[in-house]
Specification:
Blueprint: E1 10-16, E2 19-26, E3 29-31, H1 48-57, E4 63-71, E5 81-83, E6 86-88, H2 110-122, E7 128-129, E8 132-135, H3 144-150, E9 156-158, H4 161-170, E10 175-184, H5 195-218
Parallel strand pairs: 4-10, 5-7, 6-8, 8-9
Antiparallel strand pairs: 1-2, 2-3, 4-9, 5-10
Length: 222
């Protein structure tokens, strides 16, 4: 999200044991672009551990994430915002506990999710409350056969949220995601959307998301 909200914030670089992370800071709020400042880092190369470690080092208390997804359901149309309550990612699990016998029970933060859903109602921006996010690895999109399998278990597909959520859970940082449905997944509809239609859906959702973020920043985010 390249919002004017963040253009005049202070640029900061945080060095972590996992690598360097670039952020923007304004008072008690931090903005992090997961794909990099130039939006050039593909999803399979994102350094999630460096990002979440940097946020922890800055004593970030809660995280609102924005994720782009494809829909696995005919009823979840592009242009919709969805706030997942759970996720699936058994084939690509990033962790801070590489060399420790330490286990976590992954779960999205329900109180934070409820807060964002209520906020969206307050400002009359419709969101789909709840859903299962399935994370694939990338960089390629999914085959029709893969989507035919995944649609039995999930609602949307993306390549980033589950990794972020898992690391936040390991560090006890409450995490919630607003997912922008920009397209139908491969094979869900007979006639695929055109690139122009996808861009239009993404732009519509971006406007709604920026309104939500503005409202979050104007409140005591809790």
């Amino acid at each position: 999200m390249h919002s004017k909200l963040f253009f005049e914030w202070d640029d900061t670089v945080i060095e972590t044991p996992y690598g360097r992370t670039h952020l923007k800071i304004n008072k008690n709020t931090v903005f992090l672009q997961r794909h990099g400042i130039a939006h050039a880092t593909p999803p399979h190369n994102i350094n999630h551990r460096a990002h979440i470690q940097a946020l922890k080092d800055l004593h970030v208390e809660k995280i609102l994430s924005i994720n782009s997804v494809g829909s696995l359901k005919n009823t979840l149309k592009p242009g919709t915002l969805i706030i997942p309550h759970d996720f699936i990612s058994p084939w690509h699990i990033v962790t801070f506990f590489e060399d420790e016998m330490k286990f976590t029970i992954p779960a999205m933060d329900e109180s934070l999710r409820t807060y964002i859903c209520t906020l969206c109602k307050d400002i009359t921006i419709p969101v789909h409350e709840g859903g299962v996010y399935i994370q694939t690895i990338g960089p390629r999109l999914e085959t029709k056969a893969e989507i035919n399998m995944l649609k039995r278990y999930g609602d949307v597909v993306g390549m980033t949220m589950a990794s972020e959520a898992t690391l936040c859970i390991e560090y006890n940082i409450p995490y919630v995601s607003i997912c922008s449905i920009d397209n139908f997944c491969n094979g869900i509809v007979k006639k695929p959307l055109t690139f122009q239609e996808i861009e239009k859906n993404a732009a519509t959702n971006r406007t709604k998301i920026e309104t939500i973020v503005q409202e979050v920043l104007s409140r005591d985010f809790q």
